[in-house]
Design goal:
alpha+beta, 2 domains, Nucleoside Triphosphate Pyrophosphohydrolase, DNA-binding, seven-stranded mixed sheet, homodimer, elongated, Arc Repressor Mutant, subunit A
Chain lengths: 249, 249
DNA sequence: GGGAATTAGTGTAAACTATACACTAGCCAG
DNA sequence: CTGGCTAGTGTATAGTTTACACTAATTCCC
């Protein structure tokens, strides 16, 4: 045990990139720092990991204290431990991201939550510490995730239209998708339940509402299925390759 | 700073899953523990992160002290911090994996290295601590990696045959691949340089030797290309799907 | 109440990619 | 010089991805 004491010298935290989707924009929940260092700057919500607390539990706690939400999609992404990432000492942080439905989010009475605000991810810049790097790592992971698993549902309200779903994917992937191909792909997965309801109060033809088929989704995960979404090349107008790579040497 | 002292209570380590490839088998370098806890059991090489050392640097150090190798493929995978994962106290560990060429590995004089041994990954079981879980996580990541990037080269000697390369992929993916399709795919990436040499001293038609085109590989990474390798279904004999998913509702 | 505005919803053909599959080539050993 | 062994090679078919444009349903405005 002697060796141990010598290395009991790092503070250990979690930071949580909380994604939401609203008004067609992918958003992230940030805290305005009330104290040094980086006072007044925006930062990711995070806190120390308690000595008797698992890492995932710490990330969940941070999330719940801020949003009041439990049972949320949460994933560990990467650990950041550059020696000088915190000016006051050695702080190693495990980055998580979570996906929540903004419609379910209500400001919590905690002091931290009062300083929280949603920011469009495309407009975020200049965060405290190395949080920009952390945000980018999590955003990158989310992009990857969304291409291989239909996690988009975690960010949408229980009932949604296909166009909303498409806009969500477009916001995450930062690209445009072809409407017909998107629908083909999504519907062919059989993970949507057509609710036989339509939108109300919109000044155009109302769209059908769908919900997400949780049961099939579990199966989907268990079987390790995956799917791919590819960018529409509509705008690029570049001609297709005619020749195939010649395999013979 | 007061808050800090209260949480300076965790020991912080890195563990390194060092993969190699030899005799057609994917291997991992393990250390036989000379002390409690888990004395006599096999464990992943790892050590404390020094207070003035970045995480990646710590992982590199562990690797170099053990194998003498530098400039090796190294990737952070996941952080493990269950409260009771170490019986002597709270120890949070960042798992890395590295890919090395076993042919370049020589036993180092360090005391740790003398207790190191390569183990076929398929036969490893019952490691110390939660190292089995860590190994699995890293193996899983490697499988994923190898499907999207041609990192296999990191594990092979500078000159290799296509069959060796295929065996490597089969060992990592734990599946069989179709010889012709594998060659087509690999060669179509144009990342191999045909050395116009052949094997010597084999009791059969000698195979051509290739080396890896580092320059093109860098480009490949920069452009974010990816490729996919899929399992041969030769043995399964299951009929192909005839009907396509019907998109119309 | 009719037309303009707006978004929903739908199919197909062509390009591309993945798959299954079997024989000949070249070397060594006996 | 034959048998044993692994290297090396092509093609046809199934399946997937892509590009692309019009009609349908509703509200709003006049």
């Amino acid at each position: 045990m002697n060796e141990f004491n010598e290395y009991f010298k790092s503070a250990f935290t979690v930071d949580n990139v909380i994604f939401g989707f609203d008004e067609g924009d992918l958003k992230v929940l940030l805290i305005n720092r009330g104290e040094e260092p980086y006072k007044g700057k925006w930062a990711l919500p995070g806190y120390f990991v308690y000595p008797t607390e698992d890492l995932d539990a710490a990330a969940k706690r941070v999330l719940e204290e801020l949003t009041g939400l439990r049972n949320v999609y949460l994933e560990q992404v990467k650990t950041f431990g550059a020696v000088n990432r915190h000016p006051f000492g050695r702080v190693i942080t495990v980055a998580y991201f979570s996906l929540i439905k903004i419609s379910h989010y209500t400001i919590q009475p905690s002091s931290i939550a009062k300083k929280a605000k949603w920011h469009s991810i495309s407009k975020v810049e200049d965060l405290a510490f190395d949080h920009m790097e952390i945000l980018n790592a999590c955003f990158h992971r989310l992009k990857w995730l969304v291409r291989s698993r239909p996690v988009g549902f975690e960010l949408l309200p229980p009932k949604f239209t296909l166009t909303e779903l498409q806009h969500l994917y477009e916001a995450i992937l930062e690209t445009e998708l072809d409407k017909r191909n998107f629908r083909k792909k999504i519907l062919s997965m059989n993970l949507l339940i057509d609710l036989d309801e339509t939108q109300e109060g919109v000044a155009h033809r109302p769209a059908r509402l769908y919900k997400f088929d949780k049961e099939k989704y579990e199966k989907f995960l268990a079987e390790g299925f995956s799917f791919e979404l590819k960018e529409s090349k509509k705008k690029e107008k570049k001609p297709r390759k005619k020749a195939r790579a010649n395999v013979a040497s």
